Amino acid sequence: MLSRTAANLYWLSRSMERAECLARILDATNRLTSLPQTGGEITNEWESAIATAACADAFRINYEQANEQTVTEFLAFSPYNPSSIRNCLETARQNARAVRTALTVEMWDAINGAWHELKSFEGKRLSRDDFSRFLTFVKQASLAYDGSAYRTMLRNDGYWFSRLGILIERADATARILDVKYHVLLPKKEPVGGQVDYFQWASILRSVSALTSYYWVYKESVKPWLVADLLILNHQMPRSLASCYENLSRYLDDLAQFYGRQGNSQRLARTMLTKLSNTSMEEIFQKGLHEFIQSFIAENNGLGNAITEQYLT
Prior knowledge:
Elements: H1 3-33, H2 45-52, H3 56-62, H4 68-77, H5 85-98, H6 105-118, H7 128-152, H8 157-185, H9 195-207, H10 211-218, H11 224-232, H12 241-259, H13 264-277, H14 281-287, H15 289-312
């Protein structure tokens, strides 16, 4: 496969996954802002949404204050935010058009249909109910793309590159959501394990479609260390860091076998998978969850760069 084609498939999938992650972040933030403030301390969950999306610097260039209007506009529709949902869907469609013959009919229909449906939401003043429907549409569009790829693509290098894009983006999003909750969101006067803390963690689980899975696995009330365990180390959870790297390592090994050579990306993926398999939540919390996640995000970006250098340029 041409590196250009591989790159288009990779970034097409990353863009669709990023759009879904942003929709989930906005959905979780809307839920958090509905919680009552306690302890006399006011928190700004909209600031946390910008931090989770990793675009605080770009936001500050365009807006002075983070509130519901500015953050939803910037993350959902702004043409000045390269990672807004609108721009993600546009980028995905552009990449899809460039490799139209490498996609199945169902994949193209999912992407093209999402782009045209987006137009019905753009340029309008949306009520909260309308915006909620918009977020649902984005999540469903991503699921339609993901499902059509899984069900209709040949298991060859095109499929593997598209999965790599999804998994790199998904691992980054899960790590950032966890880090912002633990490091930014909890009010200083609110105890860990308190009522506000409980509802915030439950909202985080909802944002990654993991609340039901949490109760299936742990069979008890929401606890921060168990949430972290589910989203970091549990291989059964599709959005966990361990699950992402289990699949990243597998697909990179498939590519290595297909092309007859290994490289730095295979080594980095195996190293991270081994690290996640050989650690425990006790060790992570002892060394610092924030420090662990920051290190993971950096190494995950490093793997993305290695994949680009090895295959996409």
